[in-house]
Amino acid sequence: MTNSDPSAPDPSGADGVRPGDPQPWVLLGEEPGYDGFLTVRRRRYRMANGREADWDVFGPAMNAGVNGGVAVLPLTPDGRIVTVRMFRAGPDRVVTNLPGGLIDPGEDPADAGRRELEEETGYTCDSIEVVGWLWSGSSSVFRKYVAIARGCRPDGKQSLDEFEDCVPAELSTSEFLADLRTPGTMTGTDAAYFALDHAGLL
Q: For residue 183, how many other CB atoms are within 10 A of its CB?
């Protein structure tokens, strides 16, 4: 596992600080906001110049103890990539997506990736490796782990949540890259590029 442990040393220095960085803001307090699938909290910060600013941060179901998710790049034995076609409310359309989802409290990211892969696609895998994590967004407190699953075969059982409509689709690497490069066709592109890089497929 690479860079998926939050306690692992940061190559940029202690706490990610690099020479010449601006001073970090000081967190003064936090109050709850909207509490739904996405939970929003308002934080008050003091900037280095003494000014104070309110900032909204978000994550999924933070009050339920969920603070991470996982995206999986599933590779079949012949090198094809297993994706899902599904409706996404933000784009308001059907898009290509890597399988993945929320990590249950106390669940290992790799175990969550294996579980989400089978639930969303019906595929199982011979092996899965978490290769790192990304912030879900610049205002997010949510970590998105990225995993590569190898030896993926459709010999499991798809088990969708009530409001999921995932249709699995195998793509060649060139087809997958075409979706990545076509604006609006895919979500989770940051995790996809991250996974492809670690898999040596870029």
A: 6
